[in-house]
Specification:
CATH architecture of the largest domain: 2-Layer Sandwich
Shape: globular
CATH class of the largest domain: Alpha Beta
Number of helices: 17
Largest sheet: 10 strands, mixed
Radius of gyration: 28 Å
CATH topology of the largest domain: polyphosphate kinase like
Strand content: 15-25%
Number of domains: 3
């Protein structure tokens, strides 16, 4: 990570106000820029075809969350007449206006590309998503029978008239607005039919009814579920004439509002809020096809209290998040090449042994390797099941293990880790688990696990009032030769075996005494009464993490001011915190070279003369979601490097419990520097942030080979 020594920088301009709005990007608009990069992957012809559908789906799902949480929150601020401005100087109303202006062309581009490009390319590969009007008679007869047997019993048509008030429309639901005419009275009526989410969104035709290519049936032929319903509405409204139908989809405020300090039982309080979420808050967005007539549109807008800016018109299918269904097709040639995570080199000699939970013979070997040296894990390049999952499973069955303590922020619905914790409790070990009930959109899953753990005798706690516990930590207490030894795992990602195959994350396995003592103090802070204000090695939010990060940045600034090399490389999901950004600006002014690898939101404006000209920001978008956090400081040649759960955001530094660990092993430090170096050299998946807030994707030069960091890291893991 080193660079050549630079000359003494010019003196800082004392007239510059580094907190001025002109030096900050808006958080919400930066997040939309990230989603624009996701959309680009869906459009980029270099992306395998089914992966392009996946990115289309991710883009749609991300926008759902933007509206359910961010837009909903801004609308609440506007209604409450909040005028507080963001660091970039925008009011809540200005942010809403700018979000709308930024999103509309992106949504238009998404739907246009799907309808005009991707559908044709899918058809060329034998995947035919047809319009109902293009079906032949045999196909229609089959779908009518399918409707009668599989769909019709599930549907509930809801009339709208003086005796039937406008029905409640659930969050993220796809619906048909139906206009019908009474055959006897000639009177027109309005009705709503919900497209059931419990059924597959895309209905596949049987092999003998698929379109054929060169005499063979296509791989997949089918239609959208809502079109099957729409063309069989006469079964729902017998004796009526169907005049017209129009699909629409709504998004509601889905953020939870729990007054923790007033809740006698946090678990019950969140369960109650989840029931409210299912009902949903106010409507914040409606998507509809542009063919919907003004009269129908006005009815929907009036009944759901929407303004024009809340309505998004699209051409073609709504709810493209459901395109993820096509990833189940057995077509590896249309997907990213298969990747099987490997066992890291320091654990590789265990890989020939069975990894079943009942195999206790290699427990000692696993712990002995950690005793000899720290182990760095890098998922999904390294296997989660053969490392983290195995660590916890072995601890659960090892007779010398006395206790296991763990924080759970998110995990899978069928979590083998939780099952191991239950087994540990049943084996008589002391097991304490902090389950974060406030992990957004995973609250219900976590409640279910909390109850299962409690039934097994695990000590379950729900964190601290006013703070989310976002740490990714595990401690195993083991009796060894008359003494107690503590083994720890500290990571950047959730204990979720499913996302561990999709997200890039780092973890450290260690039995360093100071880390064990620090985690003991941290768990006591989380489960008992403690005002722990100092830790030996860990940086913990909201205790000392903010101050320490600022101190590390300012130390590089001082090195540069003294004519020594100043160098910072930081990788994270988001950079939002104004104090951190101002400190980085000061470091840049002093001559510190700063490289930031930020997947999503970046509120820092790079490349401004006399302010941030020494700062470069890139974002890497690829087959894996970049989720790891790494912080490197040159420190005059005595390099320090940290990994952990925290981004540089106010919520991580001030309103969450986070843990960041220093890396002491010189070989692991080199490994992390190499990982950062590979990412900084990426010329395929990397995007550079410009001073105006736009991003430019890197491309290989004429005499430069393509370097895709995630591909290179897979190759490195195999070596």
């Amino acid at each position: 990570m080193a660079s050549k020594k630079t000359s003494t920088p010019p003196a800082k301009n004392p007239d510059l106000d580094l907190r001025s709005p002109e030096y900050y990007f808006n958080r919400e608009l930066s997040w939309l820029q990230f989603n624009n990069r996701v959309l680009h992957e869906a459009i980029d012809p270099r992306t395998p075809l089914l992966e392009r559908l996946k990115f289309m789906a991710i883009f749609s799902s991300n926008l759902d969350e933007v509206f359910m949480v961010r837009v909903a929150g801004l609308k609440q601020q506007v209604e409450a007449k909040v005028e507080k401005r963001t660091p970039d100087g925008r009011s809540p109303q200005q942010q809403l206006n700018d979000i709308c202006a930024t999103l509309r062309p992106m949504v238009t581009q998404q739907h246009r590309h799907f309808e005009q490009a991707l559908r044709l390319q899918l058809a060329s590969k034998g995947i035919h998503l047809l319009e109902y009007v293009d079906l032949n008679q045999e196909q229609r007869v089959y779908l009518q029978k399918y409707f009668e047997e599989q769909i019709f019993p599930v549907l509930t048509p809801l009339a709208v008239d003086p005796s039937h008030p406008f029905p409640y429309i659930s969050n993220l639901s796809l619906n048909l607005a139906v206009v019908i005419k009474d055959a006897q009275t000639e009177e027109e009526h309005f009705a709503r039919v919900k497209v059931p989410s419990v059924l597959p969104r895309f209905v596949e035709l049987p092999e003998d009814l698929r379109l054929r290519r060169r005499g063979k049936p296509s791989i997949w032929t089918g239609v959208a579920l809502e079109q099957v319903i729409a063309h069989n509405l006469e079964f729902l409204f017998p004796g009526m004439n169907i005049q017209e139908y129009y699909p629409f989809r709504i998004t509601r405020n889905a953020d939870l509002d729990v007054e923790e300090d007033e809740a006698d039982d946090l678990l019950l309080a969140i369960e109650q809020e989840l029931r409210k979420r299912r009902i949903g808050g106010s409507v914040v967005r409606m998507e509809l096809q542009s063919s919907m007539p003004e009269a129908v549109r006005e009815v929907l807008m009036r009944e759901m209290t929407l303004e024009d800016r809340d309505v998004y018109e699209v051409e073609g299918l709504l709810g493209l998040g459901d395109l993820m269904q096509f990833m189940a097709l057995p077509l590896p040639e249309l997907k990213d090449s298969h990747w099987s995570p490997v066992v890291p080199a320091r654990l590789r000699r265990l890989s020939d042994r069975p990894s079943e939970t009942s195999d206790l013979d290699d427990t000692e070997d696993f712990f002995s390797i950690i005793r000899r040296q720290d182990v760095l894990l890098h998922h999904p390049y390294h296997s989660f099941s053969a490392t983290v999952q195995r660590f916890i499973t072995h601890a659960a069955h090892d007779p010398d293990v006395l206790a296991i303590k763990m924080t759970l922020y998110r995990t899978s619905g069928d979590s083998p880790i939780v099952n191991s914790l239950i087994a540990a409790a049943e084996n008589g070990k002391q097991v304490a688990v902090l389950v974060e009930l406030k992990a957004r959109f995973d609250e219900e899953n976590n409640i279910n696990w909390a109850r299962a753990l409690e039934r097994a005798g695990v000590h379950v706690v729900y964190g601290l009032v006013g703070l989310k516990t976002h740490t990714k930590t595990t401690m195993v207490v083991r009796r060894e030769e008359g003494r107690i030894r503590r083994y720890v795992h500290i990571g950047t990602g959730n204990y979720n075996p499913k996302t561990a195959r999709l997200y890039t994350d780092l973890g450290l396995l260690s039995c360093r005494e100071d880390l064990g003592a620090d985690l003991t103090d941290l768990f006591n802070y989380l489960t008992g009464y403690s005002r722990q204000q100092s830790y030996r090695e860990l940086l913990v939010a909201p205790v000392n993490l903010r101050d320490k990060m600022l101190e590390l940045i300012r130390r590089e600034t001082e090195h540069a001011k003294q004519g020594r090399q100043g160098r910072i490389v930081a990788k994270m999901n988001a950079l939002v915190d104004p104090a951190i950004i101002a400190a980085l600006y000061e470091a840049s002014q002093a001559g510190v070279r700063i490289d930031l690898i930020i997947r999503g939101i970046c509120c820092l404006r790079p490349g401004i003369k006399d302010v941030s000209e020494n700062i470069r920001v890139i974002s890497i978008i690829g087959r894996f979601l970049e989720h790891s956090r790494v912080y490197y400081f040159h420190n005059g040649g005595e390099e320090e490097i940290y990994i952990g759960s925290a981004d540089w955001m106010p919520r991580n530094l001030d309103r969450r419990v986070e843990a960041v660990v220093p890396i002491r092993d010189p070989d692991i430090q080199k490994d992390l520097q190499e990982i950062l170096g590979v990412m900084l050299a990426d010329n395929r998946q990397a995007w550079e942030l410009r001073p105006d807030g736009s991003y430019s994707q890197r491309h290989p030069g004429a005499n430069c080979p393509e370097q895709a960091s995630q591909v290179m890291l897979m190759e490195m893991a195999l070596s």
